[in-house]
Amino acid sequence: MTALPLFSPMLGAQRVIPVLTIDTVEQAVPLAEALAAGGIRVIEVTLRTKAALKACEAIAHHCPDVVLGIGTILAPSQVNEARDAGARFLVTPGTSEKLALAVAESGIAALPGAGTVSEMVALMEMGFHEQKFFPAEAAGGVDYLKSVAGPLAELKFCPTGGITPANAGTYLGLANVLCVGGSWITPKTAMASGNWAEITRLAAEAARLGR
Ligand code: 3PG
Fold it and tell me: Where does 13-207 sit in CATH, by number?
């Protein structure tokens, strides 16, 4: 089996991935620029809004220095849509076999989601050694990741779901954690009012986490 492309080489020193829900295309580029101004250039845009794919296209076109990930991929057809919109990496919240195959065949780096040891092992069998652990806090959090580190020693995770500035550091201290994901960097109020300065401030704080 050919090795699947890894996500981690794109991370650089960044250890926090903002998980973004973008309501309007107009928000996309100012948001990506605000995050980059705070030192956050690796981002995940979720496919949860009508505007999401167009927002991704805008970021891919106007912000070449941003490493664009596309997340909340639930169906194989969305893998192609994400590629066409400029995805440099793919993220799924959970991963059926059909979805995992589509992601593997895309040749795009990915963080496929797993929430249990069996799901982690199934993905590992397919060659995915870097995975999203979701929903991290609800599924067992730091203790769960500590427990799987022994048997699943070759896996690295991006825990996401319930991560906050208060607990991010503990996750980032684990040897099997590559980075964490979270939505706290882009509060709904700041997004809605276009308060990009606030988002740059939160991004700069997040960029310092884990360093
Ligand atoms: C998500 O998919 O919504 C992400 O995991 C973000 O979760 P959070 O809002 O708890 O950070």
Answer: 3.20.20.70
